[in-house]
Amino acid sequence: MIIRCFHITSVFFHGALALITGLAGFAGGAVAAAQAQGATIAGASGLPLPRFVSLKSDKVNVRVGPGRQNALVWTYQRKGLPVEITYEFDNWRKIRDSDGETGWVLASLLAGTRTAMVMTWNKDGTPSGGKKVAALEKLYKRPDETGAIVAQVESGVIGRVKTCDGQWCRLEIKGYSGWMKQQLLWGVYPEEKIK
């Protein structure tokens, strides 16, 4: 579950909440085209885009555009939440969360620490945002489904990523250490290797 506080800048239409969550056209066609093809490009920081990071504090404000002059749309209230940086402008980062929501945050509010959220996935391969929990996912002692189970973990739980081999990731989750199938995690790319 993502804890997001919405701000007064939200608008209500016929009882439904409508949010401004992005800056239309700001990222530019070249960036969007490169990302659609799975290419990695360098951002203003010189680091690759897109890439996963995590929230540095329990209070991270998200804006509709890069700059404090832009409207505040919500505040994340979950330190360690994995988010994906999709674009950089100065010291601002456009991020996307596991629900697909996008917005801009100050780079200083993001950490390079890799975390991942245990997710339930829809049939089309998109994350469900923890909305449909069919079963608990297993954290194994070693990267093997026949191995001992260390813990059973609910969708929405966040763990620190220690390593990934492209199929399995070793995580630390609330005092437990073990391996989980990489496809069950949001915060690491499919087949990504992390040392």
UniProtKB/TrEMBL annotation:
**Sorted UniProt keywords:** Signal
Which InterPro entries does UniProt cross-reference here?
A: DUF1058
Gene3D superfamilies xrefs: SH3 Domains
Q: Which residues form the signal peptide?
A: 1-32
Q: What is this protein called?
A: SH3b domain-containing protein
Originating species: Candidatus Tokpelaia hoelldobleri
